[in-house]
Design goal:
This protein is an alpha/beta fold. The protein contains 13 helices and ten strands.
Length: 323
């Protein structure tokens, strides 16, 4: 009897051992690829976690590792240096890079419209950009300062009457403590939600209504070198990414849960915040992947006029339209 049990145990061990070996062999057959996020994992990245966990990358023969940046400028730098294959970045950031002859390209839009707005205290009686005259506006990056200047100027205001201060990423504390009357650099799918969760009501001024280009907030980028040498890899990666976004679009709750199940322990997510964030994001991601030459030209012209770049990079070479 004991001999029979021992034989059965050995057979089971061999079966599971063979299955594990087979799985490892299958994994070995996949091409390793890295993609770096623009920030810590959050609702906007759900499509990547869907592509990973639903097996869409594997179907394309890819084993994908999702990386987090130490700084928001890292993704672009590391892609250019060939230290990561793909990354999520920002259209204005890529324009700045190409103006400095850094060979990175956008292969797809992720969020087709700006997430940044000018947020103002609901009780401050600021209804339009011109009303910011004599007020203090905090911004996180030069491009967000330029957005405020453009909106105020195009609304007939005097930008010399603005008090603009660089508050870095302390956007929420600056707003809640009334250090500033308005902020530029806060996203409607993140900072707005968190500020209102603190019990502080804000109103939104949309800079696009006042002459700021309707730029792509987030884009998928790679290096010119990788695309030239391995277009097939770029296309395989993009096909899986598209499937991931389609899954999230059709199954938002399940798609978000895949992100929450894989959240970074150092940056725990609030499920309710991310749910609200995704509800805001999905309508802004309807043209997922789409890029137009006119849009790139408008952003480049605007950035040059505002002296955010010293020279105009060629719009035609800044992006590649993957199907």
């Amino acid at each position: 009897m004991m001999k029979k049990v021992l034989i059965i145990f050995i057979v089971i061990v061999l079966i599971f051992g063979l299955a594990a070996c087979t799985q490892k062999e299958e994994q070995k057959g996949l091409q390793e690829v890295t993609v770096m996020l623009d920030w810590y994992p959050n609702a906007v990245h759900s499509f990547l976690y869907a592509a990973l966990n639903k097996g869409y990358f594997a179907e394309e023969g890819l084993s994908v590792k999702i990386l987090m940046p130490a700084d928001t400028s890292d993704p672009l730098k590391l892609v250019a240096a060939g230290q990561t294959d793909f990354a999520i970045s920002y259209q204005p950031q890529l324009v700045m890079a190409r103006a400095q002859d850094i060979p990175v390209v956008s292969v797809a839009s992720i969020v087709n419209h700006p997430l940044n707005t000018i947020m103002v205290g609901a009780s401050d009686n600021i209804k339009r950009p011109k009303d910011l005259e004599g007020k203090t506006v905090g911004y996180s990056l030069p491009v967000y300062e330029a957005i405020v200047k453009t909106a105020v100027k195009n609304d007939g205001g005097d930008i010399s009457k603005l008090s603009l201060i660089d508050i870095g990423w302390d956007l929420i504390p600056a707003m809640v403590t009334k250090k500033v009357n308005a902020i530029s650099g806060g996203f409607i799918n993140h900072e707005k939600i968190l500020i209102e969760k603190e019990g502080y009501n804000v109103n939104i001024i949309d800079p696009v209504q006042y002459g700021v280009p309707d730029y792509y907030e987030l884009i998928l980028i790679t290096s010119e070198k990788l695309f030239q040498e391995n277009k097939e890899l770029a296309n395989k990666f993009w096909q899986a990414v598209k499937k991931g976004q389609s899954y999230v679009r059709d199954n938002p709750s399940e798609g978000l849960q895949l992100l929450l199940d894989n959240q970074n322990d150092q940056f725990p997510l609030d499920a309710e915040v991310e749910k609200e964030s995704l509800e805001i994001l999905l309508p802004l991601m309807q043209d997922f992947g789409k890029q137009e030459l006119k849009g790139w030209q408008e952003v480049i012209e605007w950035m040059y006029e505002l002296e955010l770049i010293d020279k105009k990079p060629e719009a035609e070479k800044a992006f590649i339209d993957l199907k």
